[in-house]
Each structure stands twice: as C-alpha cells, then as structure tokens.
Automatic annotation (TrEMBL):
Pathway: Cofactor biosynthesis; pyrroloquinoline quinone biosynthesis. Interacts with PqqD. The interaction is necessary for activity of PqqE. Gene3D superfamilies: Aldolase class I (3.20.20.70). Its EC number is 1.21.98.4. Residues 4-219 form the Radical SAM core domain. InterPro entries: 4Fe4S-binding_SPASM_dom, AdoMet-like_SPASM_containing, Aldolase_TIM, Elp3/MiaA/NifB-like_rSAM, MoaA_NifB_PqqE_Fe-S-bd_CS, PQQ_synth_PqqE_bac, PqqE-like, Radical_SAM_PqqE_MftC-like. It is an enzyme of class 1 (oxidoreductase). CDD domains: Radical_SAM, SPASM_PqqE. [4Fe-4S] cluster binds at residues 18, 22, 25. The gene is pqqE. The lineage of its organism: Bacteria, Pseudomonadati, Pseudomonadota, Alphaproteobacteria, Acetobacterales. It catalyses: [PQQ precursor protein] + S-adenosyl-L-methionine = E-Y cross-linked-[PQQ precursor protein] + 5'-deoxyadenosine + L-methionine + H(+). It comes from Gluconobacter cerevisiae. Belongs to the radical SAM superfamily. PqqE family. This is PqqA peptide cyclase.
Length: 356
C-alpha cells in the first residue's frame, strides 16, 4: 500500500476556552470543555508523534491557547523537535513575563488577532470590555521582543469599510505582515452568516483597499477572500488529508477544523490510536483524499488537482452531502444556493455570540 505524503502542518487546538466570544469563530458549535482537554503529557505526545510523522510546523491555537498554563513547555518541546512554532492568539492574556518565557522557549512567530480598529467595533464583536487596549499593548510588547508578528483582521459586513485603517494600525504597531481575512462560514461563522456576509460592492471596495496597500510596498499583505462571492472554490486545507492535521482539545484528529459535522464516520482520537495510523489509515482521512471520490463535474474537470473539489464541509453545510462538488463552484448543480445566501444576507440581524 502506498502511504500518503506526511502532513506539513499541525493545528494544535489546545483549548476551546477563550475570553472573547466572536460570532465568526471557526470552532464547532459544540465546544469542548476544560475537563475533556488533553493533559500536558497528551500534548507532548502529539508533538512528538507529529515530528516523527514528518510535520514541519505547529500552530498553537484555540480558543485562546494562552489559557493553557503548559503553553511555554509545549513551545519549548516544539523547538527541541525542530518544529517551527506559531502562536495564534487574541493577545488579551499576554504580558511581558509570559512573552519573555515564550521567547526563551523558542517561539518562532505570533499571529495576533484584532476584531477591529475601533474600540466600539472590537468590543461589539469580541464581547470583552477593554480588549482593544490590551491587544495594542500586546502588539507593542511583541514588537519590542523581536518575535516576528502578523496582525490578523477578520473582516465582515460591519468592519470591512475600515480596511485602510487596519493597514495604518499595522504600520503604526510595526507588524511586518498583515492578514485581512474575510470571515469563513463554518461553525459560528455559518450560524451568523446573514449578519456577517458582505455585499459584492463591499467586497470590491475591500479588494481595492488591499491592492492599494500592496502597491505602496513595505507591508506584506495576505488576503483571504470570501468563498460566497467566488465562482471557483479554494483548495480547502490544500486538499483533504494532504497537508494539514488538526487536533482538537480532547485529542480528536481531523483533516480540518470543521470536519466534526461529517456524518456517519468515526472521529479518531490520539488517546486510542497513533497519529501516524490515523493519518495514513483512518477512514476519515481517506474519505476525500485525492480524486477517486469525486462526482461529476469535478471528476472530469481540469482543475480537480488544483482545488480538490473545494471544501467538503461547505458542500455538506449547503447541499447536505459532503461528497458533492463545493457549491461555490459555478459548475456545481447547487451553485444557486450560494447565490441565494448572498441575496438573502440581511442588513441588521442579531449576532449569536460564541458561548459554551
Ligand atoms: Fe473545482 Fe470541481 Fe469546480 Fe472543477 S468542477 S472547478 S474541480 S470544484
Ligand atoms: Fe472542512 Fe473545508 S473546512 S474541508
């Protein structure tokens, strides 16, 4: 049997606990509680097995990974195992002492998220009073430490007009890189889609702002566009079971952060099987790997090894069957569902906040 190539990246969701409650969170609606979380030995074993399997990078994520007291120990282990480590954080739990410890442990990069540029906008989305000031302070500390930093802004209908101010803040805070990421509609984001999905005009304006910033130079800009306004899908996760492996707080191993919605399949856990056995042999990882599973129109499409048929979780959420072509693709027989969602996104519906 030919084994698949090893994953490049591990997304280690250390915890679902988080002081913020953003309504676009990509965590599942059924959040995992503290009592179910892997302990330190469990996470150490995940990192060791990941390095053994051939993983090159680990992204410590959550929830808020800084809520875990063993984060420094895990970063230090990642360094020993030659894993490039990235911390994905809201920054609200960061202070000088913790940052110094992370730096000493060998942390390679920090991705610091911002909900908005205005205090009111940030508090409306994150739901935490005073969060914006704490994030700005965190950015200053990170800048002073010399750890490479990317600022991440998730954009949506309410804040998308402020992209130029987001770039100005990134420059002011000395970030080398900024990511403007349109909300992805999974988990809580899908629940709040009608409130968050920008109009086509807003998207065009956002894209112009990104292009204008790129033309200025000096700041590296990543731009993640919203699927719903595209006519070809993204290669979600670089293809199912091809580049990413995701481990949830309780040790479930998934091909993407949203895969727990896939019905009629067992979700393997590192507490029961090795990471390598799960990656190479589990029915979940082999379900949509490669191109053999594809229906038409993907099966005979020249893009099938570029976008891998798009996103399985989106296909499931919008068509009821994860094995369908991603309906974002205009060749999909279900593409009208995406157009309908765009047409029906309303002006001011209530936000449903992420909560346990
Ligand atoms: Fe991609 Fe399938 Fe659409 Fe072709 S038909 S562009 S492979 S989603
Ligand atoms: Fe699961 Fe795209 S989010 S395959």
């Amino acid at each position: 049997m030919t084994l698949p190539s090893p994953p490049m990246s591990l997304l280690a969701e250390l915890t679902h606990r988080c002081p913020l409650s953003c309504p676009y969170c990509s965590n599942p609606l059924e959040l995992e509680r503290k009592a179910a979380e892997l302990d330190t030995a469990g996470w150490r074993s995940v990192l060791e097995q990941a390095a053994e399997l051939g993983v090159l990078q680990v992204h410590f994520s959550g929830g808020e990974p800084m809520a875990r007291p063993d984060l420094v120990e895990l970063v230090s282990l990642a360094r020993k195992l030659n894993l490039y480590s990235n911390l994905i954080t809201s920054g609200v739990l960061l202070d000088e002492t913790k940052l110094e410890a992370l730096d000493k442990a060998g942390l390679d990069h920090i991705q610091l998220s911002f909900q908005d540029v205005t205090e009111a906008g940030a508090e409306r989305i994150g739901g935490l009073k005073g969060a914006q000031a704490r994030k700005i302070e965190a950015a200053r500390l990170i800048r002073a430490s010399g750890i490479p930093m990317t600022l991440n802004f998730v954009v949506h209908r309410e804040n998308v007009a402020r992209i130029p101010e987001m770039f100005a803040l990134a420059r002011e805070l000395g970030a080398g890189r900024v990511e403007i990421a349109h909300t992805q509609y999974y988990g809580w984001g899908l629940k709040n889609r009608d409130a968050l999905l920008p109009s086509r005009e807003q998207l065009q304006e956002a894209t112009r702002a990104v292009e204008a910033e790129r033309a200025k130079g000096g700041l590296s800009v990543d731009y993640v566009t919203p699927d719903y306004h595209a006519d070809r899908p993204k290669p979600c996760m670089g293809g199912w079971g091809q580049r990413f492996v995701n481990v949830t707080p309780s040790g479930r191993v998934l091909p993407c952060h949203a895969a727990e919605i896939i019905p009629d399949v067992a979700f393997p856990n590192v507490q029961d099987r090795t990471l390598s056995d799960i990656w190479n042999c589990s029915p979940l990882f082999n379900m949509f790997r490669g191109t053999d599973w594809m229906p038409e129109p993907c099966r005979s499409c020249e893009r099938k090894e570029q976008d891998w048929g798009g996103c399985r979780c989106q296909a499931l959420a919008l068509t009821g069957n994860a094995a369908n072509t991603d309906p974002v693709c205009s060749l999909s027989p279900f593409h009208d569902r995406v157009e309908k969602a765009v047409a029906e996104a309303s002006e001011k519906p209530e936000l449903v906040y992420r909560r346990f």
